[in-house]
Amino acid sequence: MLLSASQESYETMMSLSLKLKHPQQNFSFIVTDKMTQVHWLRDKNLRDVLIHLHEWHLLVLHWIKANQAGQAASFFPTPYNWRTYGGLNQEFVLKHQETSLEQAKVLLAGSHKDMLELIETFSDEALFTKQYFTWTGTTTLGSYFVSSLPSHYDWAIKKMKYQLKADKSIG
User: What is the pTM of this model?
Assistant: First the structure.
């Protein structure tokens, strides 16, 4: 279920990305006064959205692999945590200002594939039993995959659908 939901959301998202009128990296998404959440202002274009997803995949991949290797690792790199990760998201945007849209698509496709392959190494019990791994704290490992794959893709789909609607209204 997690694998199929992740793949379906990914395919929907990438299909929508092809329909954007101005997907190039220097085109800014349309933002209105009602869009007060930070991500609407942070992600200026499709590249920023795709890179955001890719970098979150890398967070999950590095965290799991380190902990599996017996290296106690926090999910976020120092000094970030669940209250301050907004700064990390901004770092991702700045880090990739020279990344092209095509490079972003390739990076995301690769990390998406790596995430699906990693999921396949775990049983449903390992993925969805709370505290199955001590390093996941009070949540399940699967919840990290859900958050960074289908749920995160759904967030990107919402952004793209909004932009597609705006594209139609401006002709």
Answer: 0.90
Q: Put residue 131 in one of left, alpha, beta given phi > 0 → left and psi -120 to 50 → alpha.
A: left
Tens-digit pLDDT profile for residues 144-155:
999 999 999 999
| Alpha carbons 127 and 122: distance in angstroms, whole number | 6
Residues 17/72, Cβ–Cβ less than 8 Å: no
Max CA distance (Å), the chain: 55
CA–CA distance, 62 with 40 (Å, rounded to integer): 27
How does pLDDT run across 45-103, given as a tens digit for each residue? 899 999 999 999 999 999 999 999 999 999 999 999 999 999 999 999 999 999 999 99
Contact 56, 64 (CB under 8 A): no
The structural domains of the chain, ordered by start, are 2-169 (1.20.120.450)
The DSSP letter of residue 16 is H
Cα gap 126→142, rounded to integer Å: 8
Per DSSP, helices labelled H in the chain are: 2-19, 38-42, 46-68, 85-95, 101-119, 124-128, 141-148, 150-169
